[in-house]
Amino acid sequence: MLQSKALQTIGFTVYYGMLVHTPNFGDLEVIPNARIGVDSRGIIIYIATGPLMTTIEGEAQSYDPSVQSISVVDISTFGFKKFFIPGFIDTHIHAPQFPNCGVFGNSTLFSWLTKYTYPVEMALEDPLKATDVYDRVVQKTLSNGTTFCAYYATIHTTATNILADCAFKHGQRAYIGRSCMDCAKKEYTDHGLEDGMQSTRTVIEHVKKIDPDYSLIKPILSPRNANKCSPDFMLWLAEQSREQNLPIQAHLSETEDEVEQILKMFPNCKTYTEIYDSHKLLTENTILGHCIFLETEELKLINERKSSISHCPTSNSCLTSGEARLRWIIDSGSKVGLGTDISGGFSPSMLTTARHAVLVSRHVAMKTKSDHDKISVNESLYLATLGGAKVIGMDREFGSFAVGKKWDCQLIDLDTEGSPVDLFDFLNPSNEGLLSGDPSHISKFQDLIDKWVFNGDDRNVRKVYVNGRCVLDKD
């Protein structure tokens, strides 16, 4: 039976050091010298702040007298240089495209799909190639601090099942989506509706077999685009979503050409969003990738259906697809997260995606001449963590630090060997200043967070925790 790093037996552990998270949109909360008690289920039992009045063990037993054996992970001596922050949540990523990261030339979406994407995806029909690619993409995203991925795979059932195995084995939370395409190019399509339905069932059954409770991985129904999935297939997928309580993911309004072409195929629908809605695919569990060229009525419909949006700024820049009006979408009340959209996006790093979300918003602001359209670093970090958790419907389980949530996080070291983040003593905050809540020292730490977002990379990620278990330890 397949074993997972995120389901190994653990004891009660207290994590002692700095916590950094965004419990509200735009608000960065910094908690120095926190003590976080995590039980054998990986759930946060308490978060103690302020001076430590007794031993860590004694404090833990004051919260739970039954606790006997206690492990301690102490990073407090490193002060502001090391901190725990929630794991990143990638709400839109194409796992089979990982070999093509950084390869897009002068392509736009359609030419890029034909020249680069479909050939490499078809190659993964070979299980050996699929194993190589999927093992690498899971390890690479984990190495960048991503504890959850909403994956698209290919049309191939065996390869998609391999992706599920890899995510489960390495301890990464994931949605596993077989690309549903029964009316795409003949070189890359399901062999009719029945084949598409059966292939989807096969993947669902495989995920249930290795993770019956969906504790780490879960199938996600993935009609790739409205023009690549027949109406009957879309309606069937919507039915499966309702009956089995499975999430849905699809692409929406990525380029103007795409919108124009798809609307010609559905003359009875006024908008691209209406196409999905007419096929019952807009639900509270639906993730819509890109959403660059939305009309106001489309955004209203998405919000009425309580569907979510995955903003993919890196990909949209690389393929010159367009600049999503992120502030407009957020102001409407939409649930929004970030996606790397490998390999339209060149990097598996959500930190890179977060910084590009900031930059793309500034390009929008240059056009609108409104500073309101700019997204701050703290807002971008929220979208990469708790915002993403809301998109996947798991914000009560992780995405920020709170009692009752899972210990899903990453340990960041700003001063690790070879760190791309340069620290200068005369600009650094002091631990005493942070502990006392001195505004000037909090401001200096905010500057360090900004530096990390714009200069940091996977070298700064030292440990990754999922479900309370350390699934990656670089030290």
TrEMBL record:
The keyword Metal-binding is annotated on this UniProt entry: yes
Q: What Gene3D superfamilies does its record include?
A: Metal-dependent hydrolases, Urease, subunit C, domain 1
Q: Please list the residue ranges annotated as the Amidohydrolase-related domain.
A: 85-471
The record's listing under Pfam families reads: Amidohydro_1
Checking InterPro entries in the record gives: Amidohydro-rel (IPR006680), Metal-dep_hydrolase_composite (IPR011059), Metal_Hydrolase (IPR032466), Metallo-dep_hydrolases (IPR051607)
Alphabetical keyword list: Hydrolase, Metal-binding, Zinc
Task: Point out the coiled-coil segments of this chain.
Answer: none
Q: Does the keyword Metal-binding apply?
A: yes
CC cofactor: Zn(2+)
Return the protein name.
Answer: Amidohydrolase-related domain-containing protein
From which organism does this entry originate?
Answer: Ogataea haglerorum
